[in-house]
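As a warm-up, study this chain.
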Amino acid sequence: MLLSWAVPKGPSLNPRDKRLAMMTEDHPLDYGDFEGVIPEGYGSGVVMLWDRGRWLPLDDDVDAAIEKGQIKFELQGVKLKGQWVLVRSAGAARRFSPNQQDRAWLLIKHRDGWAGDVDVLTAAPLSVLSGKDLAGILLEHMPAQWSAPGNEQKGRIGKQLQLLIDQARGAGNK
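Now compare it with the structure written out below.
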């Protein structure tokens, strides 16, 4: 199983930045190579394989570290390298309903040779698998129900998805 956290603003290489990381359900190892579009009904949206590499726990007992609310690890990825920590966040948890409080963590880069002020999301925005951005992935894997004009998505996530659909339609017309 893959331990999984969603980092809405993406990781930061700056140790002063604390990025919200919402713990999600564990994923099967097969999901580690998935890139494409998840259809409506189960976490629908575009999935990019933004980085890949090795995750090495720095704690002897990962389960105990997660239970304690602080897990230290090293990343040996294409884009992310060096040491990091995930810390359960009581402050961030207050913003969520009681049944989601344990899901709120903070992702923090340790001060090491890989830390810095570079915005890694801007410097390396494309997929390590396909070399595409989200609109390009959507264009390649677009389900028929999303390609038809007039099938607008609703809500905040829907608006973001609609922007990608519009970008993909524009790229397809070039």
